[in-house]
Write a structure and sequence with these properties.
two-stranded antiparallel ribbon; 6% strand; 2 strands; 4 helices; 47% helix
Length: 97
């Protein structure tokens, strides 16, 4: 078979009447000691932290309605408006005692 390239390379391109050119993608090297699921786990933890940010802020600021912020955050936080309402409740000023 004229012009056919039989090798272990990933792809060949024949350019007119010239010899085929092989295109090889570089090997992917993982970081030493990196687990494949570590990035996914880290992403899940970061996203959960961002999702529960209103509850974390309310707890840190010791607002009196932490329970309400938590309930709104859990049940309505998946909507952007519910998340913003929970964050506003957590960040509002506390009454002075």
């Amino acid at each position: 078979m004229r012009g056919a390239y039989r090798g272990s390379l990933s792809e060949t391109i024949s350019a007119g009447g010239r010899r085929p050119v092989a295109i090889v993608s570089p090997p992917v090297i993982a970081a030493a000691g990196a687990e494949p699921g570590l990035g996914i786990g880290l992403a899940v933890v970061l996203l959960l932290g961002l999702y529960f940010l209103p509850t974390i802020v309310a707890t840190a600021r010791k607002v009196p309605n932490v329970g309400s912020v938590f309930v709104i955050n859990v049940f309505l936080g998946w909507t952007f408006i519910g998340w913003v309402v929970a964050l506003a409740m957590a960040a509002r000023s506390r009454p002075q005692s």
